[in-house]
Fold this protein.
Amino acid sequence: MHEPILGTRHEHWPDEAACAARAHAMAHALQRDASLRDACIELDGPLGAGKTTFVRHLLRGLGIEGRIKSPSYAVLEPHEWRNEHGAAQSAWHFDFYRFGDPREWLDAGFRETFAGPGLKLVEWAQNAGPQRPQPDLLLAIEPGADDSRRVVHSALTPRGLALLEAGCRPLML
Ligand SMILES: Nc1ncnc2c1ncn2[C@@H]1O[C@H](COP(=O)(O)OP(=O)(O)O)[C@@H](O)[C@H]1O
Ligand SMILES: [Mg+2]
């Protein structure tokens, strides 16, 4: 993909708590700003980088309780969270690690899911092929020694830029 990058942000997560803090800042932005709630975020990085871990912290930050399954086998785990008015909001967690057949994209209705409402959180997006839509934000997680991670955020849309900046500025009250 060669879309222009509107902004980047480099972070160092010394441990999983830093990953959780970043995820919670994004969840807070999603709760505050309805225009961000249909965003698509791709998570890049090798096995064990922390993609699923980040998604779990984000979903917890949105108030989702109970066990949060990894979609490794199912490709898609749908979730529901409640906004401040108690209205149900969708969050779709994709993992295309085992995805091989582009026809499945159409058969499974993923095109509609990506075009529809709700937050899309996508692991191994490259396996979904070029038919996937452009994400708003890309998080590339590179594992370092022990629990440390280098993370590059790249915003490809204004919505992605707003998520990239989440938690980085004083809240406007
Ligand atoms: N800084 C960190 N950020 C994210 N996960 C971390 C971090 N440090 C350690 N971990 C651990 O690394 C593992 C990442 O696994 P997972 O999220 O399943 O990776 P992926 O989905 O990228 O394959 C988890 O066991 C998590 O607890
Ligand atoms: Mg994973």
Summary: The mean pLDDT is 93. The radius of gyration is 15 Å.
